[in-house]
Amino acid sequence: MKPALELLCKSLSRRDRLDKREIDILSSLNYKQMAFAKGAELISAHSRANSSCLVMSGLTARALMLEDGRRQLTALHIPGDFVDLHALLLKVMDHSVMAMDDCVAAFIPHNELIALTEQAPHLTRLLWLSTTIDAAIQREMIASIGRRTPLTHLGHLICELYLRMEVVGLAGGWRFQLALTQTDIADILGLSLVHTNRTVRDLRATGLVSWKNSDVVIHDFDRLAELAGFDATYLNLLSEPR
């Protein structure tokens, strides 16, 4: 299978079984591979899309820019994620997608995805499922910004990212890489840098997480989940017929 599609298959297969024909269809998709440096835009707001972007490596984020120059990061995307599968129907992007570190992405033409939907209804449903999970992640982000404390918001995010990365083989042994600066974290939490630094320090002080540079180690996932009020239901990690 083409490297760009291996992680996507892992993610979809966690939720339901892919048969050989469906794997072959995914393997046959053509794409244009592009590399992006940290801080670059993979997709610009108000652009008209004719392809959808699948992250191959690195970390990306949806970003909304305010009139005063501030930004809010509304979701993080890991390798194996489509960042804009919804653009197949929306056509014009209402937000940008940025590289949080150096990353590589595959751009799959919409005409290829449309052909897929016409020949593989079950596979289409699984791709649709991925967009509904995106929406669920967005709802949790809204709840975190609006109602969770900064500490529980950050703990919730750590729990979520570990499980998502574990699905595609990028995390294990309660350890994963998270290439975010303090400014990036502030733009996720919706806080000032001073408050963000305090929040990261408070998380470390719990003893539940070690975080040095980009290396994150969770020492007690269950206690961290309890602290953060984390319930993985929204990630839909159950394998069942769709």
How is the CATH topology of the largest domain named?
Answer: Jelly Rolls
Report the order of strands and helices: HHEEEEEHEEHHHEHHEEH
Strand order of the largest sheet: 2-6-4-5
Identify low-pLDDT runs: none
Overall tally of domains: 2
Specify the number of helices: 9
Supply the CATH architecture of the largest domain. Sandwich
Sum this structure up briefly:
The protein is α+β, with helices and mostly antiparallel strands and 242 residues long. Helix content is 45%, strand content 21%. α6 packs across α8, α6 (150-167) packs across α9 (221-228) and α7 crosses α8 (193-205).
Description of the structure:
It is a single chain. This protein has 242 residues and is an alpha+beta fold. It has 2 domains: 3-139, Jelly Rolls, CATH 2.60.120; 149-235, Arc Repressor Mutant, subunit A (Orthogonal Bundle), CATH 1.10.10. Helix content is 45%, strand content 21%. The protein has 9 helices and 10 strands. A 4-stranded antiparallel sheet has the order 2-6-4-5. Helix 6 packs across helix 8 (193-205), helix 6 crosses helix 9 (221-228) and helix 7 crosses helix 8. The mean pLDDT is 95.
Give descriptors for this structure.
242 residues, alpha+beta, Jelly Rolls, Arc Repressor Mutant, subunit A, 2 domains, four-stranded antiparallel sheet, three-stranded antiparallel sheet, 9 helices
Topology:
Elements: H1 3-15, H2 20-28, E1 32-36, E2 41-43, E3 51-57, E4 60-65, E5 71-77, H3 87-90, E6 96-99, E7 103-109, H4 110-119, H5 121-146, H6 150-167, E8 175-177, H7 182-189, H8 193-205, E9 209-212, E10 215-218, H9 221-228
Antiparallel strand pairs: 1-7, 2-6, 3-7, 4-5, 4-6, 8-10, 9-10
Helix pairs in contact: 6-8, 6-9, 7-8
